[in-house]
Design a protein that fits this description.
CATH superfamily: Vaccinia Virus protein VP39
Shape: globular
Distance between the termini: 25 Å
Oligomer: single chain
Structural class: alpha/beta
Helix content: 25-40%
Strand order of the largest sheet: 3-2-1-4-5-6
Number of helices: 10
CATH class: Alpha Beta
Number of domains: 1
Radius of gyration: 17 Å
CATH architecture: 3-Layer(aba) Sandwich
Strand content: 15-25%
Order of helices and strands: HHHHHEHEHEEHEHHE
Length: about 220
């Protein structure tokens, strides 16, 4: 298991006014709406989610770095858990032709509104029950998704990732190192059910038997 940061440039490119989300209205209501993962979350107000999630190529550099690091080649299999509208998978396919691509997400809205080229390869599903054989994928990724689960479900999901993946797995979770980052995360997050310090995440991974690579997102 290694800490490898592939996504900080994407995360840091987004400007966030932490206080505005708290002061804009009842944040508990915003979170309740966001956790439906329907149109309000993806394409509604910024207070309840992305404020419009459209393809803009932001994930191309991430796909390139993952491909280079894990040595992905044509014919190999990749799974994206929490694939959303399939943008990252789309960029994988642009870089490496003939990858066998699969994506799964709890949001039927996201799957129904996915980038058209990826639609045949995406399905609605949950990380706690992955409908794939043991050791099926050459790379399993999950970016900013698994922290939306509570710990009992997270443990199952991590074990499922280990089951369906061969050697290469990469996940990204929310974390904090300082009290300010913790407060910022609490102000900003809408769907996160668990977030911890780096040492706590390492302890959880070990307890759950997760042996893949990971990174943490910090709200500085």
């Amino acid at each position: 298991m290694a800490y490898i940061d592939f996504i900080q440039p994407v995360h840091q490119a987004t400007k966030r006014d932490y206080l505005s989300r708290v002061l804009a209205g009842n944040k508990a209501d915003f979170a309740t709406i966001a956790k439906r993962f329907d149109s309000d979350y993806w394409d509604g107000s910024r207070n309840t989610g992305y404020g419009g999630y459209t393809y803009d190529g932001r994930w191309q550099a991430v796909a390139q770095r993952l491909i280079e690091h894990y040595g992905l080649k044509s014919g190999q299999r990749i799974l994206d858990i929490g694939c959303g509208k399939g943008f990252l998978l789309h960029d994988f396919a642009l870089v490496v032709p003939n990858l066998t691509i699969s994506g799964i997400d709890v949001s039927s809205y996201a799957i129904e509104n996915a980038v058209s080229e990826m639609s045949p390869f995406l399905k609605v599903g949950n990380a706690i029950s992955l409908p794939y054989p043991d050791g099926y994928f050459d790379l399993v990724i999950s970016i900013n998704t698994l922290h939306n689960m509570r710990l009992p479900e997270l443990e199952i999901a991590l074990k499922e990732i280990e089951r369906v993946g061969k050697n290469n797995k990469y996940i990204v979770m929310d974390g904090y190192r300082t009290e300010q980052e913790k407060v910022n995360l609490l102000y900003w997050q809408l769907t996160c059910e668990c977030f911890f310090t780096p040492k706590e995440w390492e302890w959880i991974f070990a307890k759950c038997g997760y042996r893949g690579d990971y990174s943490l997102v910090y709200f500085e």
